[in-house]
Specification:
Low-confidence stretches: 1-19
Order of helices and strands: HHHEEHHHHEEHH
Number of strands: 4
Radius of gyration: 40 Å
Structural class: alpha+beta
Helix content: 55-70%
Strand content: 15-25%
Shape: elongated
């Protein structure tokens, strides 16, 4: 029984620890679910979808039930040649009406069909903008997540330096106690230990701040007790020709600009169709009941169906239609300029990302070798210090070189990962 309880306790502890580890996939999943920028953009896309209806395009009829009532109480003065002046007071009149009416625009020069096509393109644009926001958010999440990993690795390097410094203090203390060296070596070792201990405290605060930045992107307001991965995976090998070939067909910003041109063309076409004749159809069932307390007609009750139509030909609108057409032409030209500019900018971003990726990859390989060399040099210097063959200053310099190499290697790996994420973001393949 005791062994079973121990086993269950260890299992629970392991599960708890696993729950506290946030992987990059977990971070991406939470961001897709909770990030507020994504949620707002999703709502905007849903609004565009809801607006894309035949009724909103003006293609469907309107049916309404209407009712009206009027009561009048008047004093009437009537003067005729034969009867003279006649004055009648308190003459009442009641007028009640009701109808069910259907109105339908049958023809507007095809504008309604252009409008429906425009609504289709606006809905498609909403989805493109949603995907663009998703890729930008995921890029930000990847950047923030691996920044936490980077800061943790730098803390690991600092803690490793602390361990080296503790060993230096022990060696210097032994040498000073035995009279083999003066006290300055011991003091310098203790000073270095304290400095790196301070650096560890500051680095821990940096990690907490980086975690909070990540939390904002995840749309969560919680503590920062979670852990992240211990390494930055570097297994991406981009195909330059393939990226350049697919860029203009997959990049969300370029697709956005292309769709803006499609919409601008339809707006221009829509304004042109506004100059065509319009034919509307109207039908319904109408009821009218009029009661007068005096006069030649005391009661008038009518009811029955009616049918009719209206033809409207715009002859002059004060130049309003022409103004809208000219404005739409200018906006279309601006959309085309924007597409060309976007292509230039995105292509430059791709080339910069490829160059950055290649440079960082080379730097990582160089610094890996350098890191091994500085580590070996530090171990040798520490061993020489134990044997009394070197000074504490040499060990201090070797230690600084090693820590700086660790920092550079971590940064190079981080920026290589960011270059990878940027390349994937440009083609929306995050």
């Amino acid at each position: 029984m005791k062994k079973l309880l121990i086993f269950l306790g260890l299992t629970f502890f392991t599960a708890t620890q696993a729950q506290q580890t946030l992987t990059i996939d977990d971070a991406v999943g939470r961001a897709l679910k909770n990030n507020y920028n994504i949620l707002v953009t999703r709502n905007n896309a849903d609004i565009d979808k809801a607006n894309n209806t035949a009724g909103n395009a003006g293609m469907l009829p309107n049916v309404s039930l209407n009712g009206s009532g009027v009561y009048q109480l008047n004093d009437v003065t009537l003067k005729t040649a034969s009867a003279g002046e006649i004055h009648t007071s308190d003459i009442s009149s009641k007028n009640l009406g009701a109808n069910v009416e259907l109105t339908w625009k049958l023809y507007d020069g095809g504008k309604m069909f252009v409008t429906k096509n425009k609504l289709n393109q606006i809905e498609a644009l909403g989805e493109i903008q949603f995907r663009e926001q998703v890729t930008q958010t995921l890029f930000n999440v990847i950047t923030a997540y691996y920044d936490v990993v980077r800061q943790k690795q730098q803390l690991k390097a600092i803690n490793e330096a602390i361990n080296y410094n503790r060993e230096r203090v022990k060696i210097a203390q032994t040498a000073f106690t035995s009279g083999a060296s003066d006290k300055t070596g011991l003091l310098q070792a203790k000073i270095d230990l304290n400095v790196y201990s301070e650096n560890a405290v500051n680095q821990q605060a940096t990690i907490e701040a980086a975690k909070r930045t990540l939390n904002v992107l995840l749309g969560e307001n919680r503590d920062v007790s979670f852990e992240v991965s211990d390494s930055i995976p570097l297994n991406y090998n981009p195909d330059r020709s393939e990226l350049e070939q697919k860029l203009f067909n997959l990049n969300p910003s370029i697709l956005n600009s292309k769709k803006q041109i499609d919409i601008a063309k339809l707006i221009l076409k829509e304004n042109n169709r506004a100059m065509f004749p319009q034919l509307s159809f109207r039908t319904g069932y109408y009821l009218s009941n009029v009661n007068n307390s005096a006069g030649s007609s005391l009661k008038n009750h009518t009811f029955g169906p009616q049918i009719g139509g209206t033809l409207s030909i715009p002859l002059y609108t004060g130049g309003e239609n022409r103004r809208k057409i000219n404005t739409a032409k200018i906006e279309l030209k601006s959309a085309e300029y924007n597409l060309e500019n976007t292509k230039i900018e995105i292509n430059a971003d791709l080339q910069n990302a490829l160059t950055g990726f290649d440079n960082q990859k080379r730097l990582v390989e160089i610094e890996k070798e350098n890191n091994l060399l500085t580590k070996e040099n530090l171990d040798i210097s520490l061993q020489r210090l134990r044997l009394g063959q070197t000074t504490s200053l040499e060990v201090h310099q070797a230690q600084e070189n090693y820590v700086q190499s660790c920092t550079r290697l971590t940064n190079f790996k981080y920026y290589l990962k960011i270059a990878e994420a940027k390349l994937k973001q440009l083609l929306a393949i995050l």
